[in-house]
Structures are given as structure tokens and as C-alpha cells.
Amino acid sequence: MKVIPLGIGGWVSNPLLGNVSLVVEIDKSRILIDAGEGTYRALRMCGFDVDDLDLILITHRHGDHVMGLATLALFARLKGITLKVYGPRDVDLEKLFDVLGIPQYLSAVDFHPIDPSPEPLTVVISHDYRVTAVLADHTVQTLAYRIDGSDGSCITYSSDTRPTKNIINLARSCTLLIHEASGNPGTEEVSHLHGHSTTSEAIQVAREAGVKYLMPVHYYVEPPILSGVGNDINIIIPLPCMPLDIQKLK
Ligand SMILES: [Zn+2]
Ligand SMILES: [Zn+2]
Asked: Rounded to the nearest whole angstrom, what is the distance from the C-alpha of residue 148 to the centroid of ligand 1?
């Protein structure tokens, strides 16, 4: 299994970082997680195209996670393919495509709504992988996803969330936790107000879940400060288009 970050920033972020979006490669399957503004561009810059994607997982309806889906649909229809998209029931694609003036392009999207649950829920099973989802703790209905590969490797992506037991349970003993870290230590109050976590809380979630590798994402306007890491947690700095081989982390 490989993880290729396409973007690593939040909605309010340095423009060079893009919006958080990840390609997960398992054998010949590719899953795109989240599609914020500029995701199509980032996808192409990293050497992929819409017809490389078997599945798209959307975590919530905030623009930095879903705004780019319309562009992906435009190119999918051009290629005569349909995008298989999963996301919380809260994501109203009909309304989004209508507002953007392209309701006819919704036919290029096969949307499977998920009813978020605090207990891990298996949402997709294929030959190469299993996808499990759980309710995160954000300001709108949000899903965190776990992908278990047939090769024994595993990643969990928190999406936008305050620290929550739901994600600790979901990520239990996974190889890698990709957790949002929108604030620096000391900004807990304001981070929680906006439904986010700090860097030290992301580290603590990884620790409690027994996950040794943490990739912090969703940076805001300040460089992330990682303190209190300890010997039990290894921090992986995400860089756009740079594949991380999960097999090597074991
Ligand atoms: Zn976000
Ligand atoms: Zn959000």
C-alpha cells in the first residue's frame, strides 16, 4: 500500500499547500480521499487522472474537502466514465452541482451515502482492500476512514476533527495515522471551537491508538510545531506527490 498526498493544507492555508487530498494505492486499485478545490490539478500534477481512480471517499461537505469533485466529474464525463463516490449522507451533491450550474454532470457520479456511526462501519469491501468509516467530531457531519489492504498494511485518515475516542478506536494498531493538526500547542480552545485538533493532540491520538507512524496534515497559516513526540511515535512529513510506501513502515 502506498499513500500519495496531493495536498496538505486546510481551507485557510498557504496556497502552495493545496487542500488535503490523498491517493491510496493498493496493488492496482487507487482510492482518492477528499477532493477540495484544486484536486484535479493536483491529481494531474502527481501523475494521475480521473480514470485511474476506483473509488472516491469524501469525508464531509466543507469546501476544502468537496469543492473539487465537480471538476473531477467534468473530466470523468469527458472520458465516458462514472466516478464511484462514498461520503456522509450530509453531502448534498445535487445542490452543489446545481449551484455550480452543471446539474447534468451529476450523471458522472455514482454516489453512495453513508449514515455516520460512532461504531466503526464497513462501507466497502473489495479484493484488494476494506474501507471502514466512523463518525468524527467536527462542526458538520464528518467521517474518518480506515483502509485495510490485503497485504496486511493499514492507514487511518481522521479528516477534520477534535480529538475523539471514535478515531482512536478506528485507528487501533493501524500502520499509519494521518491526522489533522490545524493548530499548534496552546491553541486548543480556538481549535476545538472550529472543530479541529492541535499537533500535540494528533500525537496523543496516535499514542492512544497504538499507531507508531503519524502524518500530520491540514495545516493552517503557521508552520506546525511538533512537541512531546516521544520515542513511541514517528512523525512523517507529508510532501505533495511523494509516495509513502506503507510496507516499509512495519
Ligand atoms: Zn478542512
Ligand atoms: Zn472541515
From this structure: 24
